[in-house]
Amino acid sequence: MKIWKLEQLKQQTHLDERVLTKAEEILKVLNVHYGDERLVTDLGGYILLAEEEIHDFINQYPTLIPEYIEPFEGHDLKQYMEVLFMLSSDDHVVIYLLEETLQQMYPALVQRYESLEGGQ
Predict the structure, then answer these.
(1) What would the pLDDT profile of 103-118 be if each residue is shown by its tens digit?
(2) Kindly report the CA angle at 58 between 43 and 30, in degrees rounded to 5?
(3) Phi, psi of 102 (to 5 degrees)
(4) What is the rounded distance in angstroms from the CA atom of residue 66 to the CA atom of residue 85?
(5) In terms of domain of life, where is this protein from (predicted)?
(6) Residue range 18-29, pLDDT digits in tens
(7) Residue 92 within a domain
(8) Position 73 in a domain
(9) N or C: which end of the chain has fewer CB atoms below 10 A?
(10) What span, in angstroms and rounded, lies between the C-alpha atoms of 68 and 60?
């Protein structure tokens, strides 16, 4: 499910609290710049949280390079990644997934990012 409204995010009660907090921060920024009544097809962007949708998104854009990959620890003490993709200057997609999932399922994505970031 593409999430672009805070009300949608609040329905995702099965996720780690820290993931939800970080996702809420992103949605608030998008709302300030693009409005909180926007549609998913409007400018701004959305968040993906479900593994299947993340997988479909990454396969749809196989050469897309993340703007940033930020690791963080969840309240459950697992390591998560926040990954920002810019489809255009006004269309952003942020995904949240476990670090091990990113490393195991999408090593080419990580390599493309690291090659541009100088291995950081």
Answers:
(1) 999 999 999 999 987 6
(2) 25
(3) -60, -45
(4) 5
(5) Bacteria
(6) 999 999 999 999
(7) yes
(8) yes
(9) C
(10) 19
